[in-house]
Amino acid sequence: MKKSLIALSAMLMLGSISTAQNVAFEEFDLDNGLHVILHQDNSAPVIITSVMYHVGAKDEQPDRTGFAHFFEHLLFEGTKNIERGEWFKIVTANGGQNNANTSDDRTYYYEVFPSNNLELALWMESERLMHPVINQIGVDTQNEVVKEEKRLRVDNQPYGNLIKAVKQNLFKTHPYKWTTIGEMEHLDAATLEEFQAFNKKFYIPNNAVLVVAGQFDKEQAKEWIEKYFSAIPKGTPIKRNKIEEAPITQTINASWEDPNIQKPMFVQTYRTPSMKTREARVLDMLSTYLSDGKSSVLYKKIVDEKKMALQIGAFNFSQEDYSMYIILGIPMEGFTQEDINKEIDEEIVKVQTELISDKDLEKLRNIFENQYVNSNTSVEGIASNLATYYLLYGDVNLINTELDIYKSITKEEIRDVAKKYLNTNQRLLLNYMPATDKTQK
């Protein structure tokens, strides 16, 4: 549900915090394994209820991709006690908004209501978990919705298949090799029983975390949580096999044709460690140093000074098992992939052999402190962060301590991590170019 209502956006802003401060929370488990996190914020009469499930694209079968994203839509179809088509009517009639999103690692659902609707919100999420109606009409309806989303956001979008092109070349065995939205032929081929089995396996209380954040009475909230969630049966524990990729030891050269673009994009990508590691956070800082804004090293050199590219950028695509460090550029007429790569590689060699300045390090720390503050400026943002830190990182209190990790990163670490992961024999070089026959490969 990518398009959400905005009825309470003003209230959310009222419930914001403007400086880095401790986020207080309480957590406990129900007997069925559901983890619960409570965060009280009485600055505005708003309540957030959210459930994050530890299921994403990586939990799918190679011939049934797109299931997790499909369920992001399907679980709004209705429940035993909420008739088909009534979910959104109930939310809007009570002054609320809702949304959901999916990644390779997890799926997240949430509602935002005036605080006097906490019981309603908890009941609705418990209904989604305990009594979902998964039938053929719902599957057929959402199949068409997902197909249209894919057409709009991927197939007909310039550079829309960039991540797909990167992933399928960077990963050979790990399920990160396919995209979150998946392949439509896989959804078409799936039976109703397969969708029902996927729901039974993954959408269970012991594979989820419930977060309640905003203005509420804690004891009353606990009573309602017990009332609506404790009767949901515990599911069969999920066994996850750790799938490891062999190290990249020589450059991977690949190309992709996109009928929606006129200018090629040249991409360097390195497979990097889990977002849970300290090294991943160092890579976050490194990518910011190289490409954050027009004052960054790569932008100033390649775009401003040498005028070799229309755009240049880099980001650390953080994930639970592996991350991807992606550097990309759109060259000016007359410049080649080799030209752009040469300039980028020169700057990478510099950070591998020279320490960045004290001034640049302080700038990076300020940037990450600002990002931390911004990520926790609304109750909605705090709720998402609490769920993420519990489910994917295994440490809820990182919401208070992760900034300290970033601030403790040294210039030497930035140099050493660049030397460890950003080598020419450890990367994918992707030539993402206009289609010669206007058909996508």
From TrEMBL:
Asked if Zinc is a keyword of the record, the answer is: yes
Its signal peptide is 1-20
Q: One Pfam family, short name please?
A: Peptidase_M16
Classification via SUPFAM superfamilies:
LuxS/MPP-like metallohydrolase
Occurrences of domain Peptidase M16 C-terminal (ranges): 190-367
The Peptidase M16 N-terminal domain, residue ranges = 36-180
Query: Cross-referenced Gene3D superfamilies, in alphabetical order?
Result: Metalloenzyme, LuxS/M16 peptidase-like
Q: Which UniProt keywords apply?
A: Hydrolase, Metalloprotease, Protease, Signal, Zinc
* InterPro entries the UniProt entry points to: Metalloenz_LuxS/M16, Pept_M16_N, Peptidase_M16, Peptidase_M16_C
Similarity comment: Belongs to the peptidase M16 family.
Protein name in UniProt: M16 family metallopeptidase
In its UniProt entry, the species of origin is given as: Flavobacterium ponti
Task: Give the taxonomic lineage as stored in the record.
Answer: Bacteria, Pseudomonadati, Bacteroidota, Flavobacteriia, Flavobacteriales
